[in-house]
Amino acid sequence: MRIFLVGLSEGFARSVARYVNGDPRVALTGVAPSLALAGIMLPVTQTALALIDWAALGASPTDSLQTLRLGRPGLRIVCVVSEADAYSAESARVGADAVISKDEFAEELEALLQGYFGERGALCGGRDG
């Protein structure tokens, strides 16, 4: 599973890279600080899953989801939100494939990836715990 990050902080990107390290089925393919750059990079990187922080981008999920999917058909979009984030409900409403919490990120990402792989048990051996 090729994962791309949009709008997530550099520190968060490093955490995701450490998290997926060690699992040959998962790779971090890129990071973009803006939707415009993500739109250019996603088709080139052949990414399957985009993790997006709408609040950091200040973007509307409605238009952005459609734009990203037009550029990369079949792209799964997962919104990463704070518990009190106004984007949480809107992301789900406009068709995000999943919404996961920053506070429970590791557990929720692992469960999400297990669902995509259809497997049980530990997935990403390189995570911090």
What can be said about this structure in brief?
The protein is of the alpha/beta class and 129 residues long. The protein has helices spanning 10-20, 35-45, 54-57, 61-71, 87-93, 105-117; strands spanning 2-6, 27-32, 49-52, 76-81, 98-101.
Task: Tell me about this structure.
With 129 residues, the protein is an alpha/beta fold. 44% of the residues lie in helices and 19% in strands. It is built from 6 helices and 5 strands; from the N terminus they run E-H-E-H-E-H-H-E-H-E-H. A 5-stranded parallel β-sheet has the order 2-1-3-4-5, sandwiched between helices. Helix 2 (35-45) runs parallel beside helix 4 (61-71). The radius of gyration is 14 Å and the shape is globular. The protein starts with a strand and ends in a 12-residue tail after the last helix. Residues 125-129 have low confidence and may be disordered.
Assembly state of the chains shown: single chain
Number of helices: 6
Based on secondary structure, the structural category is alpha/beta
Low-confidence stretches: 125-129
Characterize the main sheet.
Answer: 5 strands, parallel
- What portion of residues is helical? 40-55%
The coarse overall form would be globular
- Rg (C-alpha, Å): 14 Å
- Count of extended strands: 5
What is the topology, as strand order, of the major beta sheet?
Answer: 2-1-3-4-5
Q: How do the SSEs run, as a string of H and E?
A: EHEHEHHEHEH
- In terms of DSSP E residues, the strand content is 15-25%
Span of the ends, CA to CA: 21 Å
Mean of pLDDT: 81
